[in-house]
Amino acid sequence: MTVPTETLSPPSGKKSLILNAFVEMWKYFNVPGPHLCQPSPQRTPVILQAGTSKAGKTFAAQHAEAIFVAGHSPAVVAKSIAEIRTLAQEQFERDPQSIKFLALLCPLLGRTEEEAREKFQSYRRLGSIDGALALFGGWTGIDLDTYGDEEELRHVESNAIRSAVQGWSKATPEVATWTKSTVGQHITVGGLGATPVGTAEQVADEMDHWVREADVDGFNLGNISGESVWEARAEGATGRSSGFEISLACGR
Prior knowledge:
Diverse_substr_monoxygenases; alpha/beta; 3-stranded antiparallel β-sheet; monooxygenase; globular
């Protein structure tokens, strides 16, 4: 909608300033001036959905064009991806492959695997366990502070906690006991997503593994520090799968 032209009174001796004001009028919000986002090629907003609750899956299957998923291993998200694709096809008559799934991934790269793992441990030492547990509570609605410091979380009554811990156990079988401190340390780097650590070639192979096992179409890359991903430098490596190519550079 075009707002009537306004004439601003100028200081003495100056020309009048004519303003044409435009306001984008929408059902739930108004934007003063031109629309703030560049239009997509399809001319309508891209619907990116997150959440794999029953209602979230149904909404995604009906409306979403891209879906954000997170898990510490491909097996954790593969079931949800398969369910949404099936639901989209059978209930909403959509092409299941037209929906693109983006997995959260926080890669940590080094020139060698040893360098990458040393970097990972240094970042982990900088993390706050209490802060990580607070984030976990905000993300999941689960307050782990109600459990004892040494209580094994795989044996608690909460199905949600047991399910989450089982997923982490599959991704990191070397962890023998899962307490709230272990959970806090585990998500200090990478949050609820996977954190592949290694050379560029190793990380590319892991991404390729996600594509093949979980049926993801791409990745939403997380960042640990200002230099860990975005300012990575090296000759890099390439991982390939059917119709999918990944190019990565190695961290400094």
